[in-house]
């Protein structure tokens, strides 16, 4: 975008995200203005208002900058796709997992520089039933973890809130029986946790699968078979880095379409930390759905 043409951007800031209310943006916004990027700023009261603001302005906008965490950015996925507008991210949340998948450090100055540099990448979008997601959708333990993660807990504990929530969720998790179709191949399994990833990172820097990227046109699935808390804890380091494939207590797959039913019992599904739908669930991926302002995506790199 640098030295090319004038650019009009809408900046949607979620004041409820961890750093959304306090972040100092004036210097960065002045740098955008110097670079020819005119920014209209909107303090979002909720996802519906933010989405409507984009729809109302879609013909005059060149870019939507979203300042918030994964919940906020995910809430804008559908409208960005529908309006075919590029996304830039100001990582103002707690986990900022999409920012990690895009190779952004979490530093605000750097995020503004990335916008000014204007380098673009195309990334995939996950779909579960009629909902879009960037990072990961969960059934089971992951749902219990995000139920423990209230906005207050996140504000107080920061990234450590994910660890705190994990231990609290362990006491509440029950096993589920699932029938799955993975690119047409059928499986029946018992599970305490299923994660279906479009992006690479979730839950504050966990890797869904070391082989996955947000632009590979695939979903990565892992499912944890029922196991003791001790076994689960021994698995934790492998799950943290997405290296769980060879463990017999984990089922892994990569696919473009995944269907999950859980009999007569419906199971809640959370995506990017927000409750979105329930089983029966149909998962798919839209390849190269959204353009984002980001440096070239590194090959399977796991930043510190
Ligand atoms: N577009 C939006 N505008 C206003 N509020 C939103 C929007 N999208 C989501 N929210 C609400 O704001 C809450 C916090 O936002 P978000 O999840 O982005 O920040 P966070 O919890 O600090 O970060 P992270 O998801 O990266 O851990 C969400 O749980 C949701 O209730």
From TrEMBL:
<dbReference type="InterPro" id="IPR017438">
    <property type="entry name" value="ATP-NAD_kinase_N"/>
</dbReference>
<dbReference type="InterPro" id="IPR016064">
    <property type="entry name" value="NAD/diacylglycerol_kinase_sf"/>
</dbReference>
<keyword id="KW-0443">Lipid metabolism</keyword>
<dbReference type="GO" id="GO:0016301">
    <property type="term" value="F:kinase activity"/>
</dbReference>
<dbReference type="Pfam" id="PF00781">
    <property type="entry name" value="DAGK_cat"/>
</dbReference>
<keyword id="KW-0460">Magnesium</keyword>
<keyword id="KW-0594">Phospholipid biosynthesis</keyword>
<keyword id="KW-1208">Phospholipid metabolism</keyword>
<protein>
    <submittedName>
        <fullName>Lipid kinase</fullName>
        <ecNumber>2.7.1.-</ecNumber>
    </submittedName>
</protein>
<dbReference type="InterPro" id="IPR001206">
    <property type="entry name" value="Diacylglycerol_kinase_cat_dom"/>
</dbReference>
<dbReference type="InterPro" id="IPR045540">
    <property type="entry name" value="YegS/DAGK_C"/>
</dbReference>
<dbReference type="Pfam" id="PF19279">
    <property type="entry name" value="YegS_C"/>
</dbReference>
<keyword id="KW-0479">Metal-binding</keyword>
<feature type="domain" description="DAGKc">
    <location>
        <begin position="4"/>
        <end position="131"/>
    </location>
</feature>
<keyword id="KW-0547">Nucleotide-binding</keyword>
<dbReference type="InterPro" id="IPR005218">
    <property type="entry name" value="Diacylglycerol/lipid_kinase"/>
</dbReference>
<keyword id="KW-0067">ATP-binding</keyword>
<dbReference type="InterPro" id="IPR050187">
    <property type="entry name" value="Lipid_Phosphate_FormReg"/>
</dbReference>
<keyword id="KW-0418">Kinase</keyword>
<keyword id="KW-0808">Transferase</keyword>
<keyword id="KW-0444">Lipid biosynthesis</keyword>
